[in-house]
Amino acid sequence: MTDAWFQEWYRLRGMNARWIDFVKKLCVRFGERNIADVIKEFNKLEKEGSVTGYQEKFEELRALMWNAQPTLIDQHFVSSFISGLKDELRSMVKIMMPTTVR
User: Fold this and answer.
1) The domain containing residue 28 runs over which residues?
2) 84 in any annotated domain
């Protein structure tokens, strides 16, 4: 169902759509969560399984955080992402000095 909604949204708006507009529509379509709960979950997020699974959950929560607080900067999210990694992985990622989550 999510995929069909996204395909329709993308077909109608295409490459001209802004990310924040997409996030807002996504939240409206699939129900916004209480922002206090989102912040709590975001701040406690840690890698438990695969890095891919962690990144997917992080991206989901980041979109909700941006929706609620669009002035947050990329460095905030980079720092949050790194801090949720396991110690051995965290140190390797920090050495790379990433400027984006990607």
Assistant:
1) 2-96
2) yes
What pLDDT digit, counting tens, does each position of 15-47 carry? 667 777 777 777 777 766 678 888 889 899 999
SS3 of 38-93: HHHHHHHCCCCCCHHHHHHHHHHHHHHHHHHCCCCCHHHHHHHHHHCCCHHHHHHH
CA 50/CA 90 separation, integer angstroms = 14
Tokens read off for 87: 């110690």
pLDDT for 21 equals 77
Q: pTM to 2 decimals?
A: 0.65
- Residue 41 in any domain: the answer is yes
Measured CA to CA, the distance from residue 52 to residue 49 in angstroms comes to 8
